[in-house]
């Protein structure tokens, strides 16, 4: 009797519940953290792609009016993020800053520089198919001499981002599997410690629904509290990064953070409940010899 009383004392029960909630919270926190990391890695890859520029060189002597009309036409393309027109005079001024005001004296101050349009494409359009179609369309214009871009840079960039994406996806799937396994084992161990209570209730004729109800409710509560704690930890990480690293945490991302938190919270509740259902059904109607294993 004393042993039984001690094993079910409020202190031991609180300790067991706290350990279960803590385990669920930490697992959900790690899952949410990698989701935040994936989101910001995705944004970083998009910004990196959109910083790759194409230079559209215009024929020498092209008028500013024709050049600006071409810029407007290019800007209307759905795959174009931004454009910048640089006239021949603007190019001369920039080169003066780099090489000195007298660097064209050898050419009798004749301006040899061409007008150009700097084009940045949207991240989703930075693939060979879209790029070739864009270049062919632009080079078909009468006032365009050529489009200059770094094919090797774009190929290496796409290849690197793709490979990193594959590694992150595999890591996320592994972490997801580990999270499900750990939460399942944690819930299962919690119910395992009550297997004799389940057996006793079955022997006295308690209905199956009456036996299951407290364990399922407890599973929901574990998931609810564990998910809430995980969301608090994630909010703390976002706050800490925001005050220590400028530009990473932005107001426009708050909705995404809220969605990630909601996903983590709901995932914890649903998974804890399902694991409780599976574990309770597993220990109900179990043969006596298996209770002692």
Distance between the termini: 22 Å
Number of domains: 2
The low-confidence parts are: 1-7
Radius of gyration in whole Å, from Cα? 32 Å
Question: What order do the strands of the largest sheet run in, or round the barrel if closed?
Answer: 2-3-1-4
Order of helices and strands: HHEHEHEHEHHHHH
Write the layout of secondary structure elements.
Blueprint: H1 2-7, H2 10-50, E1 53-58, H3 64-75, E2 80-86, H4 88-99, E3 116-121, H5 128-139, E4 144-148, H6 151-192, H7 195-203, H8 208-244, H9 254-283, H10 288-291
Antiparallel strand pairs: 1-3, 1-4, 2-3
Task: Summarize it.
This protein is of the alpha+beta class. Helices cover 70% and strands 8% of the residues.
């Amino acid at each position: 009797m004393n042993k039984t009383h001690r094993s079910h004392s409020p202190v031991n029960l609180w300790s067991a519940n706290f350990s279960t909630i803590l385990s669920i919270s930490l697992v959900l926190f790690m899952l949410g953290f990698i989701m935040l990391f994936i989101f910001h890695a995705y944004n970083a890859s998009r910004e990196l792609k959109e910083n790759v520029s194409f230079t559209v060189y215009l024929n020498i002597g092209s008028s500013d009016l024709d050049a600006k009309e071409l810029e407007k036409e290019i800007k209307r393309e759905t795959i174009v993020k931004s454009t910048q027109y640089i006239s021949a005079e603007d190019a001369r001024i920039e080169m003066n800053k780099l090489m000195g005001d007298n660097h064209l004296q050898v050419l009798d101050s004749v301006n040899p520089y061409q007008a150009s349009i700097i084009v940045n494409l949207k991240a989703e359009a930075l693939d060979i198919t879209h790029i070739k179609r864009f270049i062919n369309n632009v080079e078909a214009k009468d006032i365009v001499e050529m489009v200059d871009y770094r094919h090797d840079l774009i190929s290496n960039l796409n290849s690197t981002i793709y490979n990193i994406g594959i590694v992150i996806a595999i890591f996320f799937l592994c972490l997801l599997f580990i999270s499900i396994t750990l939460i399942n084992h944690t819930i299962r161990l919690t119910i395992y410690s009550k297997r004799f209570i389940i057996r006793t209730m079955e022997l006295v004729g308690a209905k199956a629904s009456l036996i299951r109800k407290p364990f399922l409710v407890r599973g929901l509560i574990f998931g609810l509290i564990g998910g809430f704690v995980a969301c608090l930890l994630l909010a703390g990480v976002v706050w800490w990064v925001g005050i220590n690293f400028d530009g990473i945490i932005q107001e426009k991302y708050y909705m995404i953070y809220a969605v990630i938190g909601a996903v983590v919270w709901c995932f914890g509740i649903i998974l804890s409940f399902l694991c409780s259902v599976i574990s309770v059904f597993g220990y109900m109607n179990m043969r006596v010899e298996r209770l002692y294993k």
